[in-house]
Amino acid sequence: MTQAILLEDVESLGQRGEPVDVSPGYLRNYLIPRRLAAPATPGALEEAQRRKAAAEKAQKARAEREEKAASLLSKTVLTIHQRAGEDGKLFGSVGAKEIVDAIDEARGLRLDRRQIQLEQPIREIGTHMVEIELADGKTAAVKTIIAEEK
Length: 150
Prior knowledge:
Elements: E1 2-6, E2 19-22, H1 24-31, E3 37-39, H2 42-74, E4 77-82, E5 89-94, H3 96-107, E6 116-117, E7 122-124, E8 126-133, E9 139-148
Parallel strand pairs: 4-9
Antiparallel strand pairs: 1-2, 1-3, 5-7, 6-8, 8-9
C-alpha cells in the first residue's frame, strides 16, 4: 500500500487533505490523472497539515463572526417606511431585498436576500418578526416595524 493525499473529496476514500492508503496502481492510474490525489511525500504531508489547520482556524473565525452577527441581529429593530392606504394595507410590499437593505443601513451587515426567511412579502403596516438564516443552521429573529410613510 502507498500513501496519498487527497486533493478532492473522494466518496470511497475520504475528505480533501486526508492522507489515505491506496494501492500503487490505483494511485498511478486513477487518482493522479484525475487530479484527485497526490503521492504523500514528507513535504506534501506537512502542507496538508498546514492547510487543515488553516481551514479549522478559518471555520472557527467564521463561526465566531456568525455568532456575533446572530446576537447583533436578534437585538436589532428595523423600521421601514412605506406608503399605505387608510386600511393599513401597503401600496406595494416589503420583501427580502428591502429588509436586507434596512439591515445594511442600520447595522452595516451585508446579507444575501436568500437568507431572509419570508413565506410571503409583508403587505400591511405593523410589527413583524423576520427570521434570518445564518451559516451552520443558526437563525436570528429581527423585529421589523412597517410604518406608514407620511
